[in-house]
Design a protein that fits this description.
Structural class: mainly alpha
Number of helices: 19
Number of strands: 0
Radius of gyration: 22 Å
Distance between the termini: 42 Å
Largest sheet: none
Strand content: under 5%
Shape: globular
Order of helices and strands: HHHHHHHHHHHHHHHHHHH
Helix content: over 70%
């Protein structure tokens, strides 16, 4: 009965947003409250779950998305995005531009959390699309496939790192195997799959439409790249320093503070205000006007992402993931496939890749011990399963839909399909490695 309620809740959300054209945020609130009541959460705690879910997801993303939008709009308005697009096109050419952006997404995705990488790369994607009149999904999906795969498969991302610890795997080996599995998953789910999506109509957020600036007025190449990628460089530096042992707790505490995404984004925004604003002859009121417009553009996106967090929390608090795991744990299957399947089903019902991965870990661990399954490969199998079936209860689904301004149907055809493709290819890669090792 629990599964039926979850499926009906998801169906109702799709109908409200797509068929009835009800605002997605309002739809999320209504469906979350109904789902909580039907799934047996006490009436006094239903709204608490909704509020907690919104708070949790917005607490980690609101500052990043807002500052990222400000930074992205300044990069677009100043001509830096135009300069970056020109340089990348000169290096790769239009024929190979997909491989340029997918490589960028992969390198950035290793150290950065998905949400941060997504927000930072959106201006780059849109600048290439608008300047060279290329299909937006054709360019954008490969980069986002790379970000998604690194998030699900590779340490130091939260879920793979936690799974390494729980399964007593080797972090280095898991990373090595993960890179072997990740590359074909990204290639098939990104550049290969996106070739069939060239005709999907998309009108991305106007905030990131680069203003055509005369060549003589463009910022320099170094200035453009350095400013746009400064958050990535700072986060990379903080990650490296965090790995260096320090006998002074104050030093470690400083780098932990300075390396937090909030501080990194603030530093990057302050730097961009100077390098792309003040030093280019722009007045502070003009720059602040750009930032104000950027906030307006992402306000509804924030609310929708918060709504998806509310539905996710209701499903988690109702115990859906545990019930699914209990139903599946006694199935006699290859352990790696079973771990992947449990994670995939929990992901479909709950919407969070991290929740799916960590819930699966507690269920599959006893089976691993009795079957002597390679723990490094199990981390990857569960990670691949946790990327499957992204849909309306996943904040990533809505970020993609709203930033790229797609219909629900086209979001399913592109984003949801890509996530399932990388999940299946990841599983096949793990099973192949299991035969070789």
């Amino acid at each position: 009965m629990t599964i039926i309620i979850v499926l009906l809740s998801i169906l109702l959300l799709i109908v409200m947003v797509s068929a009835l054209r009800i605002n997605a945020f309002i739809s999320f609130l209504v469906v979350s409250i109904l789902a909580g009541i039907l799934l047996g959460i006490p009436l006094g705690k239903v709204t608490a779950s909704v509020e907690k879910g919104m708070g949790d997801v917005l607490g980690s993303l609101a500052i990043i998305i807002i500052i990222g939008a400000m930074l992205g709009k300044l990069v677009a308005e100043s001509g830096a995005a135009q300069k970056i697009a020109s340089v990348m096109m000169d290096i790769c050419g239009e024929k190979y531009i997909q491989w340029g952006v997918v490589t960028t997404g992969f390198l950035i995705g290793i150290p950065l959390f998905y949400g941060i990488g997504f927000v930072l790369m959106i201006p780059l994607i849109f600048s290439i699309v608008y300047k060279y009149k290329l299909p937006v999904i054709y360019i954008g999906l490969p980069m986002l496939a790379a970000l998604s795969v690194t998030h699900g498969f590779l340490p130091p991302h939260p879920s793979p790192s936690a799974l390494v610890i729980q399964f007593k795997a080797n972090m280095g080996l898991t990373l090595l195997y993960g890179l072997i599995v990740a590359v074909p998953a990204i290639v098939i789910g990104g550049p290969v799959f996106s070739r069939v999506l060239k005709n999907i109509p998309s009108n991305p957020l106007a905030s990131f439409v680069p203003v055509e600036v005369p060549e003589s007025s463009l910022p320099g190449t170094f200035n453009s790249f350095f400013t746009a990628l400064l958050p990535v460089l700072l986060l990379l530096g903080a990650t490296v320093f965090a790995l260096i042992p320090s006998s002074d707790p104050a030093v470690a505490e400083f780098f932990a503070f300075a390396g937090s995404p909030t501080i990194v984004m603030l530093i990057a925004l302050f730097s961009a205000t100077l390098t792309l604003g003040v030093f280019q002859g722009k007045k502070i009121p003009y720059i602040m006007g750009i930032y104000g417009d950027a906030i307006k553009d992402v306000a509804m996106i924030l609310l929708i992402i918060g709504g998806s967090g509310a539905l996710k929390q209701v499903l988690v608090d109702s115990g859906v993931s545990e019930q699914i795991a209990v139903l599946l744990k006694d199935l006699h299957m290859q352990p790696l496939f079973l771990g992947w399947m449990i994670a995939a089903i929990i992901r479909f019902c709950v919407g969070s890749a991290t929740v799916a991965g960590l819930t699966t870990a507690g269920i599959i661990l006893p089976l691993m011990n009795t079957t002597h399954t390679d723990p490094n490969l199990m981390v990857l199998a569960v990670g691949a399963g946790s990327l499957m079936f992204s849909h309306v209860n996943d904040s990533g689904f809505w970020m993609f839909k709203e930033y790229f301004n797609l219909s629900m149907k086209d979001t399913f055809k592109s984003w949801a399909a890509m996530e399932s493709i990388v999940g299946v290819v990841g599983l096949l890669g793990v099973l192949l490695l299991n035969q070789i090792l």
